[in-house]
Amino acid sequence: MTVLQEQEGDTLDAVAARIRSHVVDMCAGPEGGHLGGAFSSADILAALYFSVLNVDPQRPDDPARDRFLLSKGHAAVGLYAALAEKGFFSVGELTGYGRPGSRLMGHPVRAVPGVEMPTGSLGHGLALGCGFALADRYAARDARTFVLLGDGELQEGSVWEAAIAAASLRLDRLVAVVDRNGLQLTGETEGIAPMEPMAERWRSFGWAVRDVDGHDPDGLADHLDAAPWEPGRPSVLIARTVKGQGLPFLAGSSASHYVNLSPRAHARAVRALHTRETTG
């Protein structure tokens, strides 16, 4: 298991569990939040921020840093939890999520330390990632750019325009991660706009592809840390996940997409996460 420097003896599984715990608390606030996608991507975020990304919370604007873009910006509660755990800002600030005066809004904004670009208008993140990767090339920096996309987001044509550009420009320091949970707000992604075989689709656009378990943070870290996988090709990791992973009463359901947990539902979620942590 990967051991974190931030807390001796800690593991990526433990970090992912804390991310989910923070998300549950934020989704019990007055505004609620996009719990399902934040839970499906929690292991991805843990792997990135605590094993892969070259970032320093004390120097969030270091020109040599790796970049991370949450293209599926509606899952901001997950990103905020990861950034707070990493030390970009106090964990205590998470309690103000969605409240008047808080910089922790429903979608990420640059006012939050560690956020590279405002996101949430789906289909824009990969194009932004191309820009960051190209800028690093021109500046002769070895930094990598990682973009987390939702699978429903792949219905946006701009994603595939960016995919073509990235392959044409041979941006092998660009890494996309697809949170492949199979669900979007209105139902199953394959019933709305089929994308399978997804790996072959990305390969046809000139990308190096790996298709993996999205709830194995150590395995995710190994794959992501090894990128680029093929010289001259951008890399895409298709992470097979479950929407709402970790909460039996919401997992695998579109009902988890956006929730405002009542006190009773919040307590039920906390118990479920505690049981999962102690038995897992």
From TrEMBL:
Its cofactor is thiamine diphosphate. The keyword Transferase does not apply. Gene3D superfamilies: 3.40.50.970. Belongs to the transketolase family. Residues 15-262 form the Transketolase N-terminal domain. InterPro entries: THDP-binding, Transketolase_N. This is Transketolase. Keywords: Thiamine pyrophosphate. The keyword Transmembrane helix does not apply. Pfam families: Transketolase_N (PF00456). It comes from Streptomyces spiramenti.
